Amino acid sequence: MKRVVEIGVLLSRSGMYAALSRASRDGVLRGVEEVNADDSLDITFRVHESDPEGRLDRYAALCREILRDTPARHIFGCTTSASRKEVIPELERFDGVLWYPVPYEGFEASERVAYTHSCPNQHLLPLLDWALPTLGTRAYFIGSNYIWGWELAQIARERVLGAGGSVLGDRYLPIGDTEIDHIIHDIRALKPDFILNSLVGESSYAFLRRLSALKQEPGFDKGFTVLSCNFTESEIEATGGAAEGLVAAGPWFEPNGGFGGSFHEVARQSVHELAQLLNGRPGAEKMPLSELLNTAIRAGQKPRLDATHLHARQPAIIARLENGRFNEIKCVAPVRADPYLTHRSRAPKGDVFLKVVP
Question: Pfam families, alphabetically (predicted)?
Fold first, then answer.
């Protein structure tokens, strides 16, 4: 008989970035279904689910409830870096582990988090290394006004300046804000070679729709190439076709034109990763994550996660959205995550500076 392992799910089904979080949730539940049906495994997962509704103030409390009121030690969830940072103190307090299945900005390595998607040396830097010689070096940045947008812009600024390019604009919006006339005015006047879009959810969809309309104006027929490290197939429908031509970077794109994208697939893989780590090891769900990984490595397993900094090894695929599906442009073989960018390969030319944004 299989032993039961309790797990938590903390992903929103509504709110400003619901399309992304629902893709992750569907991937987790798909993974649970597959694990529970796999007779080669000696475990079955039982899910305790909470819905934060995309509200930042709910994540810590709901994480606390799962860890305090159920036997679950492993939680799959969070879609934004802000929500991830909200739950880390609760994970530390109650001996929990968060499986975080979405891209993030790096510069973190919590012993309580399994970073199963990509960080900047696996998404942003390969994307820019393709874009700068291909599209040009005049860049414009727009992002959501929190750590994801800030850090990606800082890293991208260093890379663009290091290539002898220029950053024409660097703008931020609160998550969910769709008032973007001033940004469209900027882009109309500046005509950048490419735009790095780090907006999240509804803000991103509104921006892409307005930019699509701008491309119809006289003199803008060639348009602007939008780059993204967080736009996936799960959001195509929400843009109403306005995302056509966008170039994205990620570890996985739907091979048959599906709509789950890497948020769904990495979440599904994460459930299988935990199942493999726990298989044949009664009580292992209570181990610290690094100990669990090292135990598996000593037994001859090859986990996706690095036992030192708990990030996954991932490929970097660059793909363009054409006719409603992503088509691969370039694929970089799986590389070890470097969350602190300790191996920066290019020194910037000229001054690198911090910009105060009112």
Answer: Peripla_BP_5
